[in-house]
Amino acid sequence: MNINELRDRISSGAAALSQEDKSELISDFNHFLQSLSRMNETDNTVGDIFENLYSSNLADEIASNLDEKAVYDLGTKLLENELPTLIHGYLNLIRNSNFLIKITDANKWADLISKLIDKSNYTFSVLFDQRIKDYGNRAFFRLPKHGEEERISWNKVGEEVERYSKSLLLLRKEISSQDGKVAFLLENCVEMALLDFTCLKNGIVNVMIPANSVGDHIKFILNETKAGILFVQNEKQLYKINKIRKEIPSVKKIILIEGRSIDKSILSLKEFLDYSKKKEEYETRKPEVDDIATIMYTSGTTGEPKGIMFSHKNLTFKRFCRALALPEIGDKDRFLSYLPLFHTFGRYLELMGAFFWGAEYAFMENPSVDAMLSNMKQIHPTIFISIPKKWIQIYDYISSHVNVELDPDEKIDSVVKDVTGGELRFGLSAAGFLPPEIFQFFQRYGIELMSGFGMTEATGGITMTPPGKYKYNSLGSALPGIQIKLADDGELLIKGEYVMAGYFNQPKEEVFENGWFATGDIMIMDEDGFIEIIDRKKEIYKNIKGETIAPQKIENYFRDFETIKQVFLVGDHRPYNTVLIYPNYENESVDLNKMDDVSCKEYFSSMIVSINKFLAPFERILDFRIIDRPFDLEHGELTPKGTYKRRVIEKNFEEVISSMYLQNYISVYVDILEVRVPNWFLREKGCLSRDLTADNKGISIPKQNLFLSIELIDSKKQLVKIGSFLYKMNKAYLDFQALLTTPVLWLGNRKLVEFTGDGLISWARKTRPSDNIKFYDTLEEPEMFEEELLFLGDAIEKQEY
After folding, report:
1. Closest by Cα among 718, 717, 708 to 677
2. pTM (2 decimals)?
3. Alpha carbons 492 and 477: distance in angstroms, whole number
4. DSSP state of 13
5. Is residue 190 within 8 Å of 143, Cβ to Cβ?
6. Are 706 and 728 in contact (CB under 8 A)?
7. What is the pLDDT of residues 610-649, one digit of tens each?
8. Would you say 601 and 582 are in contact if contact means Cβ atoms under 8 Å apart?
């Protein structure tokens, strides 16, 4: 067999070969692989053969005809020689789904792959160059917008990352920060993904700051990491930075992705990218597998956020292990994605997963139900990964169009396909509880919806229910490449090559014990190794949107109030936080015993409003109940040390807690008109449900001196005056949520904007008027401030309205 001839035949591509030619080529390729085990060195010809497999469209057929044992044996041989380029080509070949489905022992392969990654220094930089070569002009990013779409090819991604790389390296040189970290305070967008790729490819440690962080947390993260460059998404995020600007001395340059600033130290994205045009020398550096690649911050259990460090080995090895667990996923798949890129599932499983698999990655227009359903029909995703809330929303939407219990399977299946785009094969629900019947419903109609458990510290997933092996209420078994076991008290312990490198600025010995990391979750494990969560040892949970909340940290804010004896935060897998309060009736400074029920509730309401000012919107407390007894040992609610047994308390006070979650809105009445105000609006305002009042003139939040005039002008025509405008309702009630989330309804309505505050601009979800309420007329001259005009100008420029 002539290697040069084999290279030329592969380079000519599948289209130039007859089926007989392909069969001969596949046979020759297998002989070529056998010969590699005898090589002590390679030349460019061997590299070319591997490099062109995907671009020639021959990889699938060749992978289909590989023998698992022979390929495994070759991998072990490659460990004996210093042939990094050959190992890189080998790793790129075996990630093909047509080969992965043949593998019988995923953990054996994971162990081999781990060693090959170390041996060849297979970092994201190598992976990046491979995929750009593999897929060229095929689309990688897809950006749906109002029924239209922009596509960005792999080649374009490669070109943009080169441009971003030169700009970032020259900017670091300019501010004398060649070894410094780069921080992101960004929201999902193509630019965020390109910047992430840029940092990982060039060995620049990037620091992910959650976009929903409050100013104090942002300040802590920037000062701890001493990041010299900060990328900020928009004016909303820049506002947070400006408030702490004098307290973050390490930050020398800020780049604003959307918009521009008159501040000289703040560059627009265009000004940043103009650095790439400079004729100036700069240093480049290829990362090593053990180098720290990135730091992601998550909530600390009692105070400041924790920085979780990931090495390049963590990132690349996890991708192979996830592929071993899901061998049918490949470069024909399409992701529809909305999970935040500053969280592990959005960043690693979706974005980097799509990049690893050579799949398409589509940015969902926004997280609303309307956008999700519209984008599903437009993108036709084959994979959808989400928190439970979205799966429930899809299920509810399907249930509103078909009787899921009585209608024939053919009719239900048709609706499921219509709603999800017709090609959805795989789904994953994580970061919360999803009822088993919803898992089973989607599985019954052709969507392999899997359950999973993970945490940031494990680069995301730890366990997953394997395709076709769902178990009731189970979180699945261990993914390839990670070990799990239960401690004596049932706490899940994990160990493996994609478990984090450690916490930033914390000794490793304080984090790991004999290599094992304690997750803080109490589990049970069955005979098949499937786990089920039964309690939490750690003081941390996720709400229904997957946002991480540290209850003890929030409960600690109540310590300074002597009238509080016990307080318990509720919100695990729920849409918002509430608290149970047991007052200190023995306090002398404030005699609660003399207060009537209304006065007592008003007293604690004011206290919670004060505490909400120190919390991020998703952490804020929306409601509370005063309980009639303290938590105690007798009812099994406390440990011997006096700490809470959270699951027991939630069970014992289930009825009281449930009363705070009866509906996702509160109703108030302006004369005879029902106004439905969404709970999230109150959370954003930092007030409680009882703080919103109404009379025959409108609604108000007295504690914040806010009032909005509302008047039913014509009950027959259902015309209602809200602030400065007149609207027509199509429901018997006023849908305040539809009004708040639809900019075409509130732009120019000065009185409404004054009531809601500046946050109104960031709540935009709908690009077209709701069916529930429509603009009818102006009663006063429309008035807009500069921020609203910028919003409107941007919308017009993008043809959104």
Report:
1. 708
2. 0.80
3. 12
4. -
5. yes
6. no
7. 888 888 888 899 889 999 999 998 898 987 777 888 889 9
8. no
